[in-house]
Amino acid sequence: MKNKILDKSLFYAWTLLTLLITGCSEEFVEVQPTSSVTSDAVFSSFTNTNIFLNELYSDIPANDEWFSYDPRANWSDDSQATFGWVTSNNGIARRDYSTSNAPVGNGTWASHYASIRKANLLIKGVENAVEGIYNQEEKDELIGQAKFLRAFFYLRLAKYFGGVPLIDKVLDRSSDEDLTYPRSSYEETIDFIVKDCREAADVLPTVWTGDGSTRASKGAALAQMADAQLFSERWGACVTTCEEIFTLGYDLVDNYVSIFRPETEDNQEVIFDVEFNESFAHDSEVFNSPRVDPVTGVAAGWGHLLPTQELVDAYEFKDGTQGDDLGHAADPYVGRDERFYATILYNGSDWRGGKIWTYFDPTVQQGTFSNSFDDNHTHQGTLTGYYFAKHLNPNVVPSETTFYGQSVGTTNAIIYRFGEILLMYAEAKNELSGPDGTVYDAVNRLRTRGGILPLSGLSQAEMRERIRNERRVELAFEGDKRYWDIIRWRIAGQVFNRSKGGMRILEQPDGSLEYNRVDAFRGEMRFVEPRDYLFPIPQAAIEVNPKLEQNPGW
């Protein structure tokens, strides 16, 4: 059984924990007096310390970034939301924010440093605990997980801001110590993250008792280390790390869609995930479901993950042609990569006992709920001609009326899985030395599962583009992976300075369908190079800590 976020029967220990982590400072990093009876109580037993650790795990923002009304996938060119008031359709799309109101701003900065403080507090508390409270294995497990999580939040900060202040101890406001730290360089920040992950991997178990994919394991620490190495273009180190992961027993499952179904999601492919269940559920079934239930005709969801035509075109046909091949223009959804059918609902898709119809219907009037293509948000239908399917449970029939304000989604958020490790390895090895047999093998294993033809005979540059496309289709809607791929590949200027696309389908008098690629309503994007590759350091943080230097262009 998976570890719950909180064992509510341990209320007393939780109360002590609450006392320990509240009373936060307004300073640029969280500080806490080190001499505290509550601290002694939290670190007085392995059980109490695990409650504190669970609180740190719960800081991982999977609910907001995967399953909310504006998932991070909408920050990329893969999808957009139905409604115009969300962040992805405003600040992110327009890039018109400042150092005081950026979408990733002081709230992110403060919350991530608060999580880092918790990790530092746990490491210190366990290291300094009275002899006999923990055995060596328990110490290793607790400290290893804390270092993994500290690295998790530092890696996010590095992606958002570049180099950041590196705090590896519990700051004490009652001391004479200077609590304002300058920014470390980007390379130093990545070094710190890699060191934490390495030290975590060296002490964490390969497999936890029971299903432990919600606990950081050796594989999770190595996967995160490979992520940091890939993002910082440390190709050789990333290859070595992936090769170490290959020895740990992970493997692909045969059926791609089974990775994302509650009844089969705990499998040999998953390395680290965030669990959702009936008692800790998310809202994706309402926020991201099609606008109308195809069987009952009632309002079912908000459609806040609308796949774009660009993403659809990334899925190849099984005959070897590309997704935008004109030879398939008359019937574009037949014979595609199996990952397409697991991820996207298109015109004529079978869904929850009915059919999803997204063609433009001129009879649909304002105020009428419909799944049909919506030119200008008249009836809140799809703006791209598609709906999202990947993490939705087809056995759940949501209703906006019944479930709005209630959480019923139980699909897990998979942070790292073996399929991504194959892609990390392939990309790093190709950049390091070109497409040898191991690169082809890694990529073709995923393509074979998708039912499409294997690759062969490519140059390094050609393989680079195919690997990038494989990442797009294999990892679509898995958090913010596509967004960060665009950023680290330095292609945001060409990808984001245009409109997201859709498919407007018209039914002809003879019943045939005419497919027209169009710009999606509200699909315009903007990106200023090189400024927008990093978010600005929050002005509020700089005002408190003048040692912080702002990012270029801000």
UniProtKB/TrEMBL annotation:
Main location: membrane
Annotated localization: Cell outer membrane
Organism annotation: Arenibacter algicola
Name of the protein this chain belongs to: Outer membrane starch-binding protein
Family membership noted in the UniProt record: Belongs to the SusD family.
Chain ranges of the RagB/SusD domain: 269-554
Segments forming domain SusD-like N-terminal: 28-226
Domain of life of the organism encoding this protein: Bacteria
Keywords per UniProt: Cell outer membrane, Membrane, Signal
PROSITE patterns according to UniProt: PROKAR_LIPOPROTEIN
